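FYI - complex with zinc ion, inputs then prediction.
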Amino acid sequence: MATDSVVDMDRLVALRHDLHRHPELGFEETRTAARVADRLGELGWKVTTGLAGTGVVGTLSNGDGPTIGVRADMDALPMTEASGRAWSSQTDGLFHGCGHDGHTTILLALAEHLAASRAFSGTIVLIFQPAEEGLGGGRVMVEEGLFDRFECEAVYGFHNMPLLPLGRAVVKAGPSMASQDTFKVTFEGKGSHAAMPHLARDAVLATAEAACALQGLIARETDPHVGAVLSVTELHAGTTHNVIPADGWLGGTVRTLDTAAREALEAGIGRVCSGVASARNAEAKIDYRRGFPVLVNDAHCAGIMRQAVVEALGGDALDDDFKPLLAAEDFAYMLEARPGAYVLLGQRDEDHTAMVHNPGYDFNDRLIPIAVRVLAALARQ
Ligand SMILES: [Zn+2]
Ligand SMILES: [Zn+2]
């Protein structure tokens, strides 16, 4: 395929390994951003820096046509690598465990290919965003006017996927990644001697009962066809065996592929916890925090991305049996602002079996030319 000859794989792999050796946390990707900006400049792209702090945007025009955005993420994870690769992280406790080093490299490879081939009409906007891992760099870029300054008609994103074999891809219309919210509920009662429970208003009982009662929101109130989880992951109360504590708290996460279910679960947590507290003569203080929204692929744009995958990788590359994940992705904020689509690109082979966010994970360099072929086909369309 032409793209393989246009892009220099040896240099790209060296770049990917360099980024891997030097991981940076969200909003601190100064070295990575500088490398991106330098390379885009060398290739003749118009470069804008400083969006959401370390974000970088490159634009290239070729005659009349639509303005299309393509986004990659640049940040690493605060975890220790155990991949055993020669290019392992040189910073303790910091690791490109999600493959964003690969994503950044792919978008620079696309920049190189498009600058050389000019195989597109209109304007391509390459978006290198900071802080995808939980900090919402995508949201900050949108809030700072990304799409006012770069008026993209559509925006596309991608992620490597170790659960899919190399050369396969998943992109479908509709909800494709989950929303991700967190909650903490504090139950305030009255403490007492453990031998005199009638003088207490027992927050331990209320906290424990609420942890169980919350599951009824999923089991009895959520459409069984909707993907939704409510996980209580923390339960805290008390300090010793003979004191009933004055308060207790529980916390956890809500994830769903359905925006209406998300609203109902948020309201339901308040109702159930207040109800349980009231039954136990205690009080519930609810702190519900909204994180990433549901990632929804636009039907038309998903169709364009599917066509690009088929053109680049062949008719059997699309895996339509792959179930949507309840993982979250901050590209969802960009898809709230503009129509677009997000594609999962398979990266699994015999040397790359670890899931993302696993200490043994490493991005598969063989995905670089595959991803460039898909994105180049997208740009041509
Ligand atoms: Zn990740
Ligand atoms: Zn990721």
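The chain has twelve helices and 15 strands. The mean pLDDT is 96.
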